[in-house]
Structures are given as structure tokens and as C-alpha cells.
Design a protein that fits this description.
The structure holds 2 protein chains of 2 kinds. Chain A contains 12 helices and no strands. Chain A is mostly helical. In chain A, helix 2 runs antiparallel to helix 3, helix 3 packs across helix 4 and helix 3 runs antiparallel to helix 6. Helix content of chain B is 65%, strand content 0%. Chain B has 2 helices and no strands. The mean pLDDT of chain B is 77. The chains are: A mainly alpha, B mainly alpha. The interface between A and B is medium-sized, with 31 and 36 residues.
């Protein structure tokens, strides 16, 4: 050890693993969940070793060291708020707030220190040291948060359904053996031992897939219907009844039916002239008038259906 | 040891430069971004290898023992 310190000036690149952990999360994985999972695992490993290294240098605070232990105990349920706060959302929130405040203070301290270190001609050794330590402390914060995020994402990926088709151009780890059997050999053209059609087809209820094979042989039972045409025609129609005739045509029709009265014409002006010599006509007319008078007497004005108002 | 020290420093600085480039770009899906990403990752990994070979870290040390110049 002593010869080394004489000959060399070793620099401890503590943050290398931290950067590797963060960069691993940025790697592109597209829709390939297994690739994403491996990136997440790599990131977690790097961060774990980063933190362990700092711990071996006694650089972690006591709570942080305890947090690291909880990571080792159960990495999949890791939370930056601590293991006891895992199920308690209010404690988690408080822990998050405290952590956020710590981070803010750290960030401000780092900025201040950077300014001091840059401004002084020969930066104070203590200042520079503080700056480096503060940067490391910030990295520790980020590390724990990343680890929590990684644990959560892995949980979600575990619950995600396996992708229906992994069409990767050579980048994927090859088609799963089960998928191969399911598809029946190379690209689905081969033999499959399954008797039933796949679940998706069963659920479609006989509506899925082609009707006829390439030769024209029917692949599924089907019926010839015409109601489909009618249904189809019923789709694109105006939503109200369109007019079928013009107004003039309508009036003509009404006239034909006798619905149009032409009042004030000849017939309303003409009165029948009573021949006074014709006894029967005169008597009939007198009788008629008497009957009318009697009717008027019996039905005084205002005695009709007053609808409860009179 | 001196050579590894020097080359380690260079590789580390390359990695840091690549990483700074990544921090400044906003579009993470471009091929350029992914290339810089992979460059940074491989540079850092090379650093790890050198650090491991040079046994820069020792389990007997504490952070207080490390001098300021040796910290970063």
C-alpha cells in the first residue's frame, strides 16, 4: 500500500457505477419487456454496488445504510421511504417530502460550493472536498430514488401480459419454444398438436379468421343471408323523412278529396225564393222556422260545456 | 500505474463528456442519442475494468482517509 501511495495518485471514481446505473435506464428497449427488465436489473445492480462501496468507506449516513440493508433484504419491494413505510401512504409521503427538502438543500449547497471553488484562484481545499462529498451525497439520493422506481417498474412489468407477437428483427432472444409450438412450426405454417383453435379465435365466437381457403374450400361454416344487405342499407340513410311531393301536388290531392272550400262564391249569395202560392213549401218553411225557434229557446247561449268555469 | 492512471482519466473524461451531451439533448429516441448513450456506457465500463484491475478501492479505507484530490 505504501509503495502505491508514493508512486501513484489514485483517484477514486466513486460515481462511475452510479452513472452506469442511470444510463442503463435510458437505453432504448422499445416494446421488448424482457430487454427492459434486463436493463432495470443492470441498473439496480450498479446502484447496489455503488452504495455498497460507499458503505464500505463509511460514507453512508446511518439511515441510508439501513435503507441499503432493506434493499438487500427485499429488492423487489424497495421503497426510498424505508421498509416500514411500505404500506403506509402517509408515512411514505412524509418521507418523500423530507427527502425532497434534503435534496433541495444539497443542490443549493453544491451550487454555492461550485461558485466558491470557481471564484477563488486556488480553491480552498476544504471547499473542494465539501463539494465532492456533496456531489456524492446527491448521487446517493438519486440512487435510492432510482432504485425505488426500478422496483416499481419491475412489479408492473411482472403483471403485464406477455406480448402477443414479438416481431423483433433479430434483436430479440429468439422465439419462445411455446410460441413456436403454438404457431405450429416455422412461422405458423407447420404442424401443430393443438385441436382447438387458439383462445382469441374461440372468444371471437366463430367470427374470426378467413371464410374460404385459398382453393375456395370453406374453412368455417357460414350462412348466406340477405338481411345483411338490408341492414347495411339501413345504415346510411337520412335521419328524417324526405318530402315525396311538392306543395302544389299536395294541394291538388286535397282538392280532389274535397278538402278545399271555395267560400264566397256564387252559391253563398243565392237564396231560395219562396213561392207563396205553393202551400206545401210555405208550410214546410214555417215548420222549419218554428223548429229552429224552439231549438234556440231550449239552448240558451252560454249553456254549453263551460269546462268547469261557469 | 501511471499509465493506467492517465488512460483512466482520459476514458473517464470521455465518458463524462458523452454523458454531458446526453443531459443536454431532449430527444431520447434518436439514433444519435442512443449512440452517445452506448459510447458513454462502454467508456464507463472500461473505467470499471481499469479500476478493478488497479484495485483503487480498498475495503479498509474510509472516506475520511481519502484525500481531497483523490476524491472525484
Amino acid at each position: 500500500m505504501s509503495t502505491r501511495t508514493l508512486l501513484t495518485r489514485p483517484k477514486r471514481y466513486f460515481l462511475v457505477r452510479h452513472y452506469l446505473a442511470e444510463l442503463a435506464l435510458k437505453l432504448r428497449s422499445g416494446t421488448d419487456t424482457s430487454l427492459r427488465k434486463s436493463h432495470l436489473a443492470t441498473s439496480r445492480q450498479h446502484h447496489a454496488r455503488f452504495l455498497r462501496l460507499l458503505d464500505s468507506y463509511n460514507a453512508l449516513s446511518k439511515p441510508d445504510a439501513a435503507l441499503l440493508e432493506s434493499l438487500n433484504d427485499s429488492p423487489d419491494t424497495f421503497s426510498a421511504a424505508g421498509p416500514s413505510a411500505a404500506g403506509d401512504p402517509s408515512r411514505r409521503r412524509d418521507a418523500k417530502i423530507a427527502r425532497f427538502r434534503q435534496e433541495k438543500e444539497l443542490k443549493q449547497r453544491i451550487e454555492a460550493l461550485r461558485r466558491d471553488a470557481a471564484s477563488a484562484e486556488r480553491a480552498d481545499d476544504a471547499t473542494v472536498r465539501e463539494l465532492h462529498l456533496a456531489v456524492v451525497a446527491q448521487a446517493v439520493h438519486t440512487a435510492f430514488q432510482s432504485l425505488e422506481g426500478v422496483a416499481q417498474e419491475l412489479q408492473i412489468l411482472k403483471l403485464a401480459p406477455p406480448p402477443a407477437q414479438q416481431q423483433q428483427q433479430g434483436a430479440a432472444s429468439g422465439v419462445d419454444a411455446r410460441e413456436r409450438d403454438r404457431n405450429g412450426g416455422v412461422g405458423g405454417a407447420g404442424y401443430s398438436e393443438r385441436v382447438d383453435p387458439p383462445l382469441a379465435q374461440l372468444l371471437a365466437g366463430g367470427r374470426a379468421g378467413p371464410l374460404l381457403s385459398k382453393d375456395g374450400k370453406p374453412l368455417r361454416p357460414f350462412t348466406l343471408l340477405d338481411s345483411r344487405q338490408r341492414l347495411q342499407q339501413g345504415v346510411f340513410r337520412p335521419d328524417h323523412n324526405l318530402p315525396t311531393m311538392t306543395i302544389d301536388e299536395y294541394l291538388e290531392e286535397e282538392k280532389r278529396r274535397g278538402g278545399i272550400i271555395e267560400g264566397g262564391g256564387e252559391q253563398s249569395g243565392v237564396k231560395k225564393e219562396l213561392d207563396e202560392d205553393d202551400e206545401k213549401a210555405v208550410d214546410a218553411e214555417t215548420l222549419r222556422q218554428r223548429q229552429w225557434d224552439e231549438f234556440v229557446e231550449e239552448n240558451p247561449k252560454g249553456s254549453g260545456n263551460t269546462i268547469n268555469r261557469g | 500505474m501511471e499509465e493506467t492512471d492517465q488512460s483512466l482519466k482520459e476514458i473517464f473524461l470521455d465518458a463524462e463528456a458523452a454523458r454531458a451531451e446526453l443531459e443536454n439533448s431532449w430527444d431520447t429516441n434518436t439514433a444519435v442519442y442512443q449512440q452517445s448513450l452506448e459510447a458513454a456506457v462502454s467508456a464507463y465500463e472500461k473505467c470499471l475494468v481499469i479500476i478493478d484491475k488497479a484495485s483503487l478501492f480498498s475495503s479498509n479505507e474510509a472516506l475520511d482517509d481519502v484525500s481531497t484530490n483523490d476524491l472525484p
